[in-house]
Structure formats: C-alpha cells, structure tokens
Amino acid sequence: MRRLWAPGLRHLVMLSVVGVVLAPILYTLLTSFKFQRDIYTGALLFEPTLRNYRALFTGSQGVFDRLIMNSLIAGFGNTLLVLAVASLAAYSLTRFGWRPLWSGLILGWLLFVYMLPPITFVGPYYVTARNLGLYDNPLTVGIAHMVLTLPFAVWLMQSFFREIPRELEEAAAIDGCSRAGTFWRIILPISRPGLFATGILTFIFSWKDFLFALVLTSTPRGNTIPIGIASFVQEYNLRYGELSSAAILATIPAVILIVLAQRHIVKGMTMGAVKG
Amino acid sequence: VKAARQRSARAELTNRRSWLDPGQLLDQKFHYLAIVPLIVVLVALTAYPAVQLVRMSLSDVALVSGGTSWSFVGLAHWRSLLDDEVARIALTNTLIFATVVVTAETVLGLTLAYLVSGTRILNTFYRTVVILPMLLPPIAIGAVWRLMYDFNVGPINRLLHEVGISAPLWLADTRWALPSVMIVDIWHWTSFMFLIFLAGVQSIPSELNEAGEVDGANGWQIFRFIILPLLRPTIIVALMLRTIMSFKVFDVPYLLTGGGPGTATELISLHIERVYFQQFQMGRGAVLALATAAVLSVFIVLYQRASRVEKGQEAR
Question: Reduced to 3 states, what is the DSSP secondary structure of residue B1?
C-alpha cells in the first residue's frame, strides 16, 4: 500500500514546489505584456501589448539598448579575461609540481575572495576607478567582476585539466612540441567543453551583478541592465509594466545559458562543497 | 658517418640554443610562469584594495574633480564605529536574517533533495526548476517580488483578499518587512542547499536504503536513521558555507525595501553602501567594511578547516 501512494505524494509535493518557484516568474511574464488597466484589475485574460517592452527602448527612459550593450561589454570582457587567466593558472596548478604550501596558499586565497561579501571591495574600487579615470565605463565593471568570477573559474578549469591524461603531453614533447605550444595546440582544444561551461557561468555571474555596476557607473554611458531595472523602483509611482518587462529581459539570457550548461553548473555554483 | 656527425652537431646546436634563446628559456619555465597573470590580478584586485581600505579607514577622503584628496585623521573613524547605532541595528538584523534563512533553506533543501533523488520520471525537470532561482539576476528577483508583495496590484494580497484575510502592508510594515525579505531569500537560495544535498544523497550507496527497506523501515525512518547520519558532515559544511554567503545579501533588499521602513531591514551591506555613497563618508565606510571582513574571516577559516576535515574523512 505504501509503495502505491508514496511516489504519488512525492510528485504532488514536488509539483507544488515547482508551482511556488515558477508562479512569480510567470506572473511577471504576464504582467510585462499588460496595459496599465489590466495590471490594476489583475486580469488573467487580457489583450496583450508590447508597449512595456517598447517603452524600454524609446522615450525618456528608453536607454535599454545602451544598457544591453554595456552588459554585453562587461560580460564578454570579463569572460575573455577570466578564461585566459584562469586556464593558464589552473594548468600550472594541476601540471606543475607546486609544493602543497604554495598551491594551497593560492587556492586558499581564491576561496577566501570568493566567500567575502563584495561590499568589502567596492570602496577602494570606486576610489581607484575615479583616480585612474576609469569611472562610468562598462569595461571597468567587467574587470571588477573578475573578483566574483575568477575563483570558481580556476576551480572549474582545474577539474577539467585533471581529467586529461599526462601521456598526451608526453607524446607532444617527444614530437618536439614546446610546452607553451602543447598548452595552446593540445590542451586548450581538448578542454573546449570545459572552457565553454566555465565561460557561460562566468558570463552569467557578470550579467547578474548589480553592486559593482551601481558603484562604478552613474550614467547610461556605463550603466548595465540591473541598474536600469532598479531605476524604475526609485520613482514614486511604480510602473509595474515596464519593471516587469525589464526583469524578463534580464532573465531570458540567463535562462538560455543555464539550459546550455546545466550539467556543469552544479560544480561551479557549489565550489568546494560538492566533491567530484 | 657524415650524416650521424651532422645529426649530433644539430642536436648540440639546439641544446646550446636552449641556453641562449630567451624564448626557449621562457618556454621551459612555462608551467611556472602560467600562474603569473593570476597573481597579478589577485594583487591588483584584492591585495592592493585591502591596503587601500586600511589607508581609507585612517583618512578623510574627499572627491575632487579628476580624483580624490586624502587627509590623515588617525583612529577617528574607528572610534566612531562604537557610537554607530545604525551599524549595530544592521548587524543584529543581519544575524537574525542569516539564522532564519539558513535554517529554513537547510531544512527545505534537505527535504527537496530527498524527494527528488527518489523520483525517476520528471527528475531532470524538477532539478532544473529548483535550481532556476539561484541563477536569475537578483535584481530581477527583487522586481518580481516587489510586484508580488504590492498592496494594491500584487497577487498575494489579491489571493488573501479572496479568502477573506486582511493582508499586511508587507514591505511597508515594520513588523513584516524583514520576514518578507527573508521569504524571498529562502525562495532564492534554497536551490543552493538543494544542489549540495542532492549530490550528498546520491552518493549514498542504494544498498543501504534497500537494506533498511528489507528490515521494514519506512520512508521517514530511512531518512532519519540512514540518510541523515551519513549526510551529517555535508550538512555542517553546507550550513557554514551558506551562513557566510548570506552576509553578501544586497541586491534583493536594496530593491524591495532599501533598508526601510526606518531601519527595519537595514542589513550590513546596505548600511555600508549608504555610508559610502549616500553620506559620502569613505573613511567610515572603510571601517565598516574592514570590520565585516574581519568577522567573516574567522568564519571562513573555520569553514576551510571543517571542509578539509570532511574531505579527509571521505578520502579514507
């Protein structure tokens, strides 16, 4: 008897959890297509409109084309830098015979940075960006994001490099390939799936960030999408239509990338806490 | 013979070149040099700012056109930390916040991991949906819940109204504001605990559960007497990790309440941001940032030790 209803109960509970997770997102999706009057009546059946999305790109607050551009600059800038630095470092850490003291020091440093609240970094970043004339520039935001993304990128790349057999490098050395050449022509091409997964996660983290962009930019010249979303809230009369469409706009790329890299996200998000 | 001599001469030449050619010398040190960019970035983005933070905490920093001007003030900002009433409230709020959300997320995450690990159909679907909130931009989550909680147009109050419950003002009510923010955090981060525990539950050999079933244990007993004891080290590590991470919370309360009403939802990160960028007291902000980092360092060191112990046991 228990065997009959237990699985059913499991699914019942899980499906209600799915409902709790998805309902707020779906409600926001619906709201983003509503006229103001339908937002106020809360109608579930309504005449859909793209007016809220259009408002993001035209009119007084229609700067989202610029904000999307800035988010992409910060995201790709960050991802390229992090992939270069992290893959080199991870290769060195897995293949060079570092004494445990040194490698432990570097990995411990990274883990420490990963766990500290980002708010502890923003004061000096702000002052430095001002002094160097890098304030209000999306690329500066991308560079600052390295402090969020480098730790797990090194961690992930290490786990990918560890799976590559050493014989491959030995064979390359016998064939007269230099060490840097081996890394560039053999190791990196083989690790393409790893670079791809790490890159996606890095990009998502940069795309999600609000704090660094808030501190390091002040105008649409440097602002990213999250800043645009927050600016709707600061007004006295909250326009939920535009707020919802902006939130959906920021969410879509994240959802697409998650579907692409689902398998690796577990490893990247739980750095160190999950084995294997 | 001639060919052999030529070959050995060429070998000698390449040998000698490895000493003379800087390119080749660099290449031999490649494994060693590959770490250099990481060190450079870490020094520029963490060590240098740490030094700067200490200097800031001992100075008045004024914004002037094209940069900043510093003047040394000694320990004045550190002394002001003691009379910072709002900082004390922010610390209390953050501790309450961390305790409640981490406890709830642990219990829920564990339950969900147990439930999902037992399903075969829809398993991937459940997993994808449950981890979704963790990967969304927190600012979008703030926007979503701002809409949910709205007193007039929000669906929560509309539902409560349908069933005849008079709803509170949620984010505008001093008693409800912090719990409202906590609910969103639990919605947001339960997925993180779920992921860690799912990996843990799945690493338990199924023979153990089957043995339990043969002995007549029901689902709860298997959970209580087999899974829970085996997961204990994982739970401890996850609890510590999530507690440390809960101190990072910024974006969602920034959008939902901005620390208000009054100081009802003032959290450490919000307070530091306000001191830095709304009151423009860089020195006092630096003191708060350093104090926060110092307290968390203790937690982080404890965490690193605990997780090493857990991994050590795992390896044996």
Answer: coil
Give me the helices (H) in B59-173, please. 76-80, 85-117, 123-135, 138-149, 155-162
Cβ burial, residue B194 (10 Å; 0-12/13-18/19+): buried
pLDDT for the residue numbered A27: 93
Q: Give the C-alpha separation, B294 to B292, whole Å.
A: 5
Which residue of chain B has the CA closest to A249?
B140
Show Cβ contacts of residue B242 under 8 Å, excluding neighbours closer than 6 positions: B102, B105, B106, B189, B192, B193
Cβ(B126)–Cβ(B119) under 8 Å?
Answer: yes
Helix (H, G, I), strand (E, B) or coil at A274: coil
Q: How many CB atoms lie within 10 A of CB A197?
A: 22
Q: Which of B180, B124, B60 is nearest to A18 (CA)?
A: B124
Write the DSSP symbol of residue B46: I
Q: Looking at the partner chain, which of B39, B147, B254 has a beta carbon nearest the beta carbon of A240?
A: B147
Longest dimension (CA), chain A: 75
Q: Are residues A265 and B67, on separate chains, in Cβ contact within 8 Å?
A: no
Q: Say yes or no: A95 contacts chain B, CB-CB below 8 A.
A: yes
**Backbone torsions φ then ψ of A212, nearest 5 degrees:** -65, -40
pTM (2 decimals)? 0.89
Distance of alpha carbon A94 from alpha carbon B296, whole angstroms:
29
Residues in chain A with CB shorter than 8 Å from the CB of B293 are 116-117, 120
A119-131 vs B268-277: helix crossing angle, rounded to 10: 20
Local mean pLDDT, 10-residue blocks, chain A (276 residues):
64 92 94 87 82 85 89 97 96 87 90 93 93 93 96 92 88 86 89 90 93 94 93 80 93 83 66 52
Task: Round to whole Å and give the CA distance between A72 and A142.
Answer: 9
Mutate to test the interface with A, among B14, B18, B21, B38 (most CBs of A within 10 A): B38
Residue B72 backbone phi and psi in degrees, to 5: -70, 130
State phi, psi for B67 to the nearest 5 degrees.
165, -150
Determine the straight-line distance between the first and last CA of chain A, rounded to whole angstroms: 38
Helical residues (DSSP H) of chain A, grouped into ranges: 2-32, 36-41, 51-57, 64-95, 100-115, 119-131, 138-144, 146-162, 166-174, 179-182, 188-190, 192-208, 211-216, 225-233, 240-269
- For B239-252, what is each residue's pLDDT tens digit? 999 999 999 999 99
Q: Which two tokens stand for residue A48?
A: 């859909």
Contact B32, A96 (CB under 8 A): yes
The answer to whether residues B249 and B243 touch, using CB atoms and an 8 Å cutoff, is: no
DSSP secondary structure, B162-183, as one string:
HTTPPP--GGGSHHHHHHHHHH
B46–A258: do the CB atoms touch at under 8 Å?
Answer: no
State the amino acid at position B234 in one-letter form. Answer: T
DSSP notation for A152-206: HHHHHHHHHHHTS-HHHHHHHHHTT--HHHHIIIIIHHHTHHHHHHHHHHHHHHH
Contact criterion met (CB below 8 Å) for B228 and B302: no
* CA dist list (Å): B180 to A92, A121, A229, B97: 47, 28, 20, 11
CB A88 within 8 A of CB B34: yes
Q: DSSP per residue over B192-224, as a string?
A: HHHHHHHHHHHTS-HHHHHHHHHTT--HHHHII
Share the mean pLDDT of chain B. Answer: 86
B15: nearest Cα among B28, B33, B4: B28
